[in-house]
Amino acid sequence: MARPREFDEEQVAEALLQTFWNLGYAATTLPHLSSASGLGPGSLYAAFGNKEAMFGIAVDRYQAYLTEAFMSDARGLEGIRTLFNKVVSLTVKDPDRRGCLVVNAVPESKALTDITQKKLRNGLGDFRKLIRRRLIEALNNSNLQDDTNLESLTASLASSAVGIRVLGRAGMGRKHLQSIADGVVMLVEGYME
Fold first, then answer.
1. Pairing with 86, which of 2, 6, 94, 108 sits 20 to 30 Å away (CA)?
2. Closest among 43, 52, 42 to 9, alpha carbons compared
3. Does the pLDDT of residue 3 top 60, yes or no?
4. Could you give the CA distance from residue 32 to residue 9 in angstroms, rounded to a whole number?
5. Would you state the torsion angle of the CA atoms of residues 46, 49, 51, 55, taken in this order, to the nearest 10 degrees?
6. Domain assignment of residue 177, given as a range
7. Model pLDDT for residues 88-131, shown as the tens digit of each residue
8. What's the CA gap between 78 and 167, in Å, rounded?
9. Which residue, 19, 35, 69, sits at the end of a domain?
10. pLDDT confidence of 146, banded at 50, 70, 90?
11. Residues 134, 83 share a domain
């Protein structure tokens, strides 16, 4: 008969997330994960699988965290403003300036399986879809009838959000990061005129 687990899976999953987010995928070792979770290597493997499977759990948890963080009733242009202000806020409120777990993992992704690479692409894609929805709402509230540039505008805004996270990780101050966010809103406002 299988023994019941003697640990809180949520706490361990959070420990996995924090460890990968602090150290990055490649630099994180099994001893790091074991120390952070309080579980021995055998228990970790038995419960969560190999290192990459544990990273997958961390990415899923991070994506859920972002989904909750970006929830807002704001739509259209105000939704874009709210979204980018939240990107700045998340960046500067992190005392360790870790940036985005998904963006940080992209340079290391060639060492990961196709499944994990797809999980990272999906994470970036989900954010892009959120931006696109807000842009469509803004277009619907404008007099502009032409949406032929929607994909280019979406790509520019998504890149700006990534830039905020990367520059924040590099230590740029709130004022600089907010100027990027404000510039995004000005770009969209100008486009909608």
1. 108
2. 43
3. no
4. 17
5. -120
6. 73-193
7. 999 999 999 999 999 999 999 998 999 999 999 999 999 999 99
8. 24
9. 69
10. low
11. yes
Its sign, for the CA torsion 26, 62, 162, 119, is positive
Domain shared by 22 and 102, yes or no: no
Q: Which pair of tokens denotes residue 152?
A: 């280019």
Give the side-chain half-sphere CA count within 13 A for 125. 6
One-letter amino acid at 47 equals A
Token pair recorded at residue 185: 């809103």
pTM: 0.90
Sign of the CA dihedral running 92, 93, 96, 97: negative
* CA 27 vs CA 82, 91, 160: distances in Å: 34, 22, 27
Q: What angle do the packed helices 51-69 and 9-23 form, to 10 degrees?
A: 90
Residues 92 and 48 in one domain: no
